[in-house]
Write a structure and sequence with these properties.
This protein has 8 helices and 13 strands. It is an alpha+beta fold. The radius of gyration is 28 Å and the shape is elongated.
Length: about 300
C-alpha cells in the first residue's frame, strides 16, 4: 500500500494513462486526457467525529469498492441536475505517525474523481482549484453501530455516546458497509477533516427543524426519552444494589454487565424478586396458616416500607 500525505480534502490530480483507462470504463465514449479534469477527495476516515461515531478500518475498506462509480453532487440533494463528477478510483490511505482517539493507526478513504472540461463545469473547476469547493461528505449505509464500551449494538445498551464510563469514552463504531449512495460538496461536514453523512436521507431532527410544527413535538419526545433513560438508569442501580445484598458471591462488574442488557420489564421483575427475598431473610413476611394469613400479619403489612 502506498503511503500518501494529504493537506486538504480536495486536490488536483494529473491524468495518467492508467487513470484515463479507468475513466473510460465509466464513460460511454472514449475520452482524451484534455477532455477531463481530475481531482482527489478525502471522503471519510476512522477518527471519532462530531456525532461521536466513526468508521472502523474494515468498514473503510468495504466502502472503498462501493464508492467507485458514484456521483458527486451538492449538499446531498439527490437530483440528476446536480451531478458534477464521478469517482473512478479509491484507496484506503494510512497516515504515518498519527493515532486516532480510539487508539489505532489513523487512515482515511481517498478517492479520485473526474469531470468534463467544458463551459458548464468551468466555474466549478475554478472553485475547486481556488479552494472554495473543498469540504466533502458521503452518503452511505452500514449494517450496525456498535457501542465502544460494551460491544452491544447502540440503542440496546445503557451507554450514551460522548459520555465516559470508568475512564472509557463511549462512541458508535460503524461496521459492515451495505451501500454507498453519493458524495457531496458541503459547507460543514460531520467529520472535522472530511465529513460524513451516515445513512439514507436526513435525520428526524433535521426534518423537524425544516417544519416548525414538528419542533415542539420533537422537543417533548426528547424530554420524555431523557426521562425514560433516567428512570431506567435508576432502576438498574436499584437492582444492582439489591443483587449485591442478596447474592453476595456475585461480583459487581458481573451484576452491572447483566443488568445493562435488561429492559424495564425484566429489571422490575428482578427488583420485586430481590425485594421479596430480602424481606423473607429479615423475617418481615409473616407465616400463613391454612389458606390465609393471621390477622396480626395482615395488620403488620400497613407498617412495611
Amino acid at each position: 500500500m502506498n503511503i500518501q500525505k494529504e493537506v486538504s480534502a480536495v486536490g488536483e490530480s494529473q491524468v495518467s494513462k492508467e487513470d484515463l483507462a479507468l475513466i473510460n470504463q465509466l464513460s460511454r465514449k472514449e475520452l482524451k486526457a484534455g477532455e477531463v479534469y481530475t481531482f482527489t477527495v478525502r471522503l471519510c476516515d476512522n477518527e471519532i467525529d462530531r456525532e461521536w461515531e466513526r468508521f472502523s478500518r474494515e468498514t473503510l475498506e468495504e466502502l472503498s469498492g462501493l464508492f467507485v462509480g458514484r456521483s458527486g453532487i451538492f449538499d446531498h440533494n439527490w437530483s440528476a441536475c446536480g451531478q458534477s463528477a464521478r469517482i473512478y478510483r479509491t484507496e484506503v490511505v494510512e497516515e504515518p505517525g498519527k493515532v486516532t482517539k480510539a487508539g489505532d493507526p489513523a487512515c482515511y478513504l481517498k478517492a479520485w474523481a473526474y469531470m468534463l472540461r467544458n463551459e458548464a463545469n468551468a466555474n466549478l473547476i475554478a472553485e475547486i482549484e481556488g479552494g472554495i469547493k473543498k469540504e466533502v461528505s458521503v452518503g452511505c449505509s452500514v449494517e450496525k453501530e456498535v457501542c465502544s464500551v460494551c460491544g452491544e449494538e447502540m440503542g440496546k445498551c445503557r451507554h450514551e455516546k460522548g459520555r465516559t464510563y470508568n475512564g472509557k469514552l463511549c462512541w458508535g463504531e460503524l461496521k459492515g458497509a451495505r451501500d454507498a449512495y453519493e458524495w457531496s460538496f458541503v459547507a460543514v461536514p460531520a467529520q472535522p477533516k472530511a465529513g460524513v453523512m451516515k445513512g439514507l436521507g436526513p435525520s428526524l431532527k433535521e426534518l423537524a427543524m425544516e417544519r416548525p410544527g414538528l419542533r415542539e413535538e420533537l422537543a417533548e419526545l426528547e424530554k420524555a426519552a431523557a426521562l425514560g433513560r433516567r428512570y431506567l438508569e435508576e432502576l438498574r442501580s436499584q437492582v444492582v444494589k439489591l443483587a449485591a445484598l442478596e447474592v453476595p458471591g456475585l461480583e459487581m462488574d458481573v451484576i452491572r454487565s447483566i443488568t445493562g442488557k435488561l429492559e424495564e420489564r425484566e429489571l422490575t421483575a428482578l427488583k420485586e424478586l430481590f425485594s421479596r427475598k430480602g424481606e423473607e431473610s429479615r423475617g418481615l413476611v409473616q407465616l400463613s396458616y391454612g389458606n390465609g394469613q393471621s390477622e396480626r400479619a395482615i395488620e403488620d403489612k400497613a407498617f412495611l416500607v
